[in-house]
Here is the input.
Amino acid sequence: MSARVLVGVKRVIDYAVKIRVKPDNTGVVTDGVKHSMNPFCEIAVEEAVKLKEKKLIKEVVAVSCGPQQAQETIRTALAMGADRGIHVEVSGKDYDNLGPLQVSKILAALAKKEETSLIILGKQAIDDDCNQTGQMTAALLDWPQGTFASEVVLEGDKVKVIREIDGGLETVRLKMPAVITADLRLNTPRYATLPNIMKAKKKKIDVVKPGELGVDLTSHLEVLRVDEPPQRQAGMKVETVEELISRLKEAGRM
Amino acid sequence: MLWTDLMMGLNRLRGLGPPATLWRLCLQCSPAVAMLDRVPSALGVPPLGLVALRLSRGIHGRGDQTNHAAGNRVPCRFPFSRVSKQDLAFFENLLPGRTIVDPDVLMTHNVDWMKSVRGSSELLLRPQTTEEVSKILKYCCERRLAVNPQGGNTGLVGGSVPVYDEIILSTSLMNQILSFDQVSGIITCQAGCVLENLSNYLEERDFIMPLDLGAKGSCQIGGNVATNAGGLRLLRYGSLRGTVLGLEVVLASGKILNFLTALRKDNTGYDLKQLFIGSEGTLGIITAVSILCPRRPRAVNVAFLGCSSYKKLLETFQCCRGMLGEILSAFEFLDSACMKLLEKHLKLINPIAENSFYIVIETAGSNADHDKEKLHNFLEAVMASFLVTDGTVATEDAKIKALWSIRERVTEALTHDGYTYKYDISLPLEKIYQLVEDMREYLGDKAKNVVGYGHVGDGNLHLNITSHSKDQALQEAIEPYVYEWTARYRGSISAEHGLGLKKRNYIHFSKHPEAVALMKDIKHMLDPHRILNPYKTLPDQG
Here is the structure.
């Protein structure tokens, strides 16, 4: 079957970087800060590439929404084995207000345009921790969804997804086309090897504007303020039990 | 009088007779020998009146084997005083709460990181200031008490732990950063600052330490300077001999020598700090350091490559030098034997296909786009010319750490493979891997694994040989063969690990007798009673 998989990849601040809040409290500092692909998106790409290697699907298309730099993230997906990329160009104010609702509208439009059988996304992004894009995309398309996937098995025109839920594991069977969001234990993303990195440079990335997809990017959310979490107070070491008791009394805790 | 007679007698006897005779003389010198497996026994019978310390995994009690390797002979205990009740009272008064006699605490300070040597010190001191160190040393000098300076205790040549009952002087509580100049990048700090803490402090301010090593979480800067530690960044930033600008040192007499300048250039008289850098705690105790730190690079990339032969590895290095020159910050290698150990013992995954050799290349520069282009051009070139068969590149912090850990954790993987014999050799580049291959062939079945890895960019090989357990016959096969091999090609028998206890008697493989004689003169001048880190660094004789 000529199955095509759409994988969403988001460019986020690298998770090893120490986050700093802008002095005007409108957001976090992103200028000059190391960015990389959202770890859960990496897992999504890996799953899609694995399916292609098993010859269960034909094409993996990596999609990213954002300014010019989003293309770097798409290149990483291509180096991991995606066939081609789509860069949905969003910049400036529109990019600042880009949230799960806007992205899911874009993905839904693209899915229809590209005749997709499966959309695989990361379960959430590590910058906003929203965990909404996959669910909203499925709703907009009226497709079934298998979120927090820890295992994905293609069975003909259906896909079996084992989901990680609070009580344990839940198995669902979805009729394709469907939306899957990847959880941590789905797989271990591969290192992009040099030959693939070289090949990736030649793979195609199409640039599309949201308007061309008929998507309206207005956001109904406004960020009022961003603050750092309160500083952790230093602890106190005491030498004896008597001192502990006297200190607790001093602090009004006893 | 008696002691000097005995020492002279010892020297005379060294040339004659079986080790047994020598050993009996040693018996009379020292009732408490705790140097494991270095101790020959008289005619196969355990000597009387000696305490045999048997310890758990990895540390073997004195065996009944006669040790023919001259270099490993246990030195006799010098005639130092022993710690008395009055001494303890003095220290407790000077360092209240920081004078430790608890045997459990002392246990960890008496054993080195590799668990290969163990001392029997009964006193651990933890000063916080240079003045305290000075008072300690002044007292010990007057009382003729031996002192073992100790930092992070991560040394690999047995130089950081006592041999007998030397007092351990730990710098762990001297961990204050004294000043940092944001413009010049010069940091001044106490000797007990842990390297990783200094790195974190500097990174927040957009600088980095000029050195980096696997032991960074435990090693202290005083110890790094005292051993002239090399590490992974030497290729780019040079050795501590260039980056250390000033030191504060306390001499054996207790005198404080302060040449803690924060000046890049100062040609006023002899450069005394060079004496103490790499002196392994035998000429003075370093109490503070000022170091010139480089700016933190904006863009760091790590490439992990696979080569099918050592020759191709060297050609890759040449290509690398040419195309990445100014941004190259590390060029390390490991062989396939190392990779197998990493996979077996630490369950690490090989990021690329199996190869004979693996290279870790790090670039560090100020412009991500420029560096990326240079790196990609280099990678295309080495792939197109088949110098490299496979590889991967990382730009994200997490992936960079993962790729580096493959090189940095080889030491750890080796400890799980059995007893490790470690050799740290400098050789001309072309000869480096030949030593590994020759050792493999020469040792045959005697050894479990023979692996090579290290700072190939600096011409420094870490040759490691493992066996199921401590094996005297294997050690005798390796030494002095490996040192003779090294000397033949004018290499160094200890590129960066130093001499410590284990290699002190092999110094003549890399240094002429006149040089060693001058070193002994300097030692005598600065520490006439030999109380600072005795039995180490300089050879027992000659």
